[in-house]
Design brief:
Low-confidence stretches: none
Mean pLDDT: 91
Largest sheet: 2 strands, antiparallel
Strand order of the largest sheet: 1-2
Structural class: alpha+beta
Length: 85
């Protein structure tokens, strides 16, 4: 996938892997991206990502809500987040 603007610039951590700096997106941004591309990867994958992120406490609901706004999927994620929380 190709990102631009805020969707590209936010939500990643820089890790040093074998001397190379690599940007890796965090769990909250990844869940938001799953909902953004739910038609390509399937809604069941996006829902499982949401459940696992919250169950494993990999991110907070505030972080999810923030990146849902960045990826412009707040209205899509709202009912699933309300049902999960």
């Amino acid at each position: 996938m190709r990102f631009s603007g805020h969707a590209l610039a936010e939500g990643f951590d820089v890790h040093n892997i074998e001397g190379v700096q690599v940007r890796i997106y965090g769990p909250a941004k990844t869940v938001a991206d799953c909902f953004k591309y739910r038609n390509k990867i399937g809604l069941d994958v996006a829902l499982e990502a949401l459940r696992e992120a919250l169950r494993g406490r990999k991110c907070t609901s505030d972080q999810l809500w923030r990146y849902a706004g960045v990826c412009r999927v707040r209205e899509v994620m709202r009912p699933y987040m309300e049902a999960t929380l």
